[in-house]
Amino acid sequence: MNKRFRNVLFVLLIIGQIAVARYYHSWRFNVDLLYLIIFHIAIKSGFMSSVLSAALIGLCSDYLSGGIIGVFSFSRTLAAYFLNSLARFLDLKKNVFVFLLIFISLFLSNLLAFVFYILIFNLQITASLLFYQPLSTAIIGTFLLGFKKAKSLLDVS
Amino acid sequence: MRYNYGNSELSTEKKSAVLVLILFVNLILISSQIILKNRQSLLQAAIASMVMPLQLTFQKSSDFVSGELDRYFFLRNIFKKYQLLKKQYLDLKIESYAMSKALRDLRAAAGVRKKFNHFLLASVISVDVNFPFAEVMIDKGTHAGLAENDVVLNADAELVGKVIKPLTAFSSRVRLITSSIGGTGAYIESNMLEGLLKGGNRAECSFQYLLANKPVRLGETVITSGTDLLYPNYLPIGRVIQIDKDYLTQRILVRPFFVDKPLKTLVVLLHE
Question: What is the pTM of this model?
Answer without folding.
Answer: 0.47
